[in-house]
Amino acid sequence: MSTPVSFPTDEQIPAAARVDASPWDRHWLCDGEIRTWTGDTAPVRSPVCVVRAGAEPEPVVLGRIAMLDRAAALEALAAARRAWDHGRGAWPTMRVGERIERMVTFTAGMRAAREDLVRLLMWEIGKTRVDSETEVDRTVVYIQDTIEALKELDRNAARFSVTGGFVGQIRRSPLGVVLCMGPFNYPLNETFTTLIPALIMGNTIVSKLPRFGQLVHLPLLPAFRDAFPAGVVNVIQGDGATVIGPIMETGDVDCLAFIGSSRVANILERQHPRPNRLRSILGLEAKNPAVILPSADLELAVKECVAGALSFNGQRCTAIKLIFAHADVADDFVARLAAAVDALAAGMPWEKVTLTPLPEPGKAAHLRALLDDAVAGGARVVGTGGGSQATFFRPAVVFPVAPAARLYREEQFGPIVPVTTFRELDEIDQFMRTSPYGQQVALFGTDPAQLAHLVDALVNSVCRINLNTQCRRGPDSFPFTGRKDSAEGTLSVSDALRAFSIRTVVATTATATNQELVGEIVTRRLSSFLSTDFLF
Ligand code: G3H
Prior knowledge:
Layout: E1 27-30, E2 33-36, E3 41-50, E4 58-66, H1 70-84, H2 90-93, H3 96-112, H4 114-125, H5 129-157, E5 161-163, E6 166-174, E7 177-181, H6 189-200, E8 204-208, H7 221-227, E9 233-236, H8 240-249, E10 255-259, H9 262-271, E11 279-283, E12 288-292, H10 298-310, E13 320-326, H11 330-342, H12 363-376, E14 380-382, E15 388-389, E16 392-393, E17 396-399, H13 406-409, E18 416-422, H14 426-434, E19 437-438, E20 440-444, H15 448-458, E21 464-467, E22 483-484, E23 487-488, H16 493-499, E24 501-509, H17 512-523
Helix pairs in contact: 1-8, 3-5, 3-7, 4-5, 5-6, 6-16, 10-11
């Protein structure tokens, strides 16, 4: 039986969880300077509410964030453009070994800021301490792995190819100015899974911070400023229409790295006057189904579906967002699932809990409307979920969700677990064929023939099939992508280095004179590109 969440009074907030955001008040980074914005600002409201005498719980205001205007946004873009300097800037022409050294310096700054980053994640987006620590630490590991992957890439390029009468050296070169926009659910990790590979490949960056999870970037501004040449990394905030529209309309963005909705991605891409010059790396929405086959180990399936659907309150693009339970096992599965969901502990991010308040204003009302729609279509809420208090929404298992219900197709991105039934395996195939999304699926079963049938049916509809385990992005060496409205481009530690670069070749006919010429350039170390230097 679930209990209501309990918001704290001021005095009940432990010292080890408190954070003071005033040192970073209204900061942004432009052209190698940390600037303090004197124009419009907006309050940063935490999903965590406090209870004050005789009043309803009120979100804590953590500080104020700069709401940059068009001119400031264009100044940041101009700084990135200057640092790129048609590919002749200090950063894009720097030897890979030195770029790596700068990145190591940055990582040390990030490690030093760890506790601030963890606390800001807890307060800004309501992520539990354990998950906030994981987000920061996983990001540091991602940077280290990226450095190793770049060394490997560079070693493989430190040789000449001799083919068809030609000699050539092929390397990966940067693209230009990359606009990075991360999401609120992993504001640090997902922003950095594009920003870091783009940066280390020699691109220059404008990073627009997400709607929630902005403050968490600000303790890192000194590390960016100190590690990289001026203008190489610029960090801006503000209303998307005010700051991003004008940036895209210049046509000066060479690559858009955006994690968010396909609706916004399409708007941004259309704003670019020469779309042929824009490369897009997009991580978009998904409606990943889990399938419970009659042969499934129900205990395992329930455990994985609870984690898959409700980690960080269901606010993951990879979350399980609809469960197909075979009619023969659906009642048993749903009863176990509802009991497991009702047993989840709720509280504040610094407590030992799974469920926490939600950062999006109005989210509880939106989730309620989705539930009401499913119930009007014949489903019922199983267990004690569906209630809300201020910014908190108690997760609801809803069953059986009819195909006409919004929850059958719409991404809820929150703590609702819709379950529907099926009889024939083709129904799953049909769902994926008609879905606008194509990220992942999770199959639970022990019958090899049924699993093999579904794998073959679905493998060209999604980009990852998880067997007896929930959907997820990691490990970061695996490709992370999707079909249709779920993604464009592939990210993984090594794929991202490729995504933010282009293959460039210096070639000559393999005559004795040309070979001698190239040999002299290499032995006298006259070029950074034409080089056989080996990076250890
Ligand atoms: O929101 C999407 C994240 O990339 C999910 O990552 O599956 O490791 O939680 P995760």
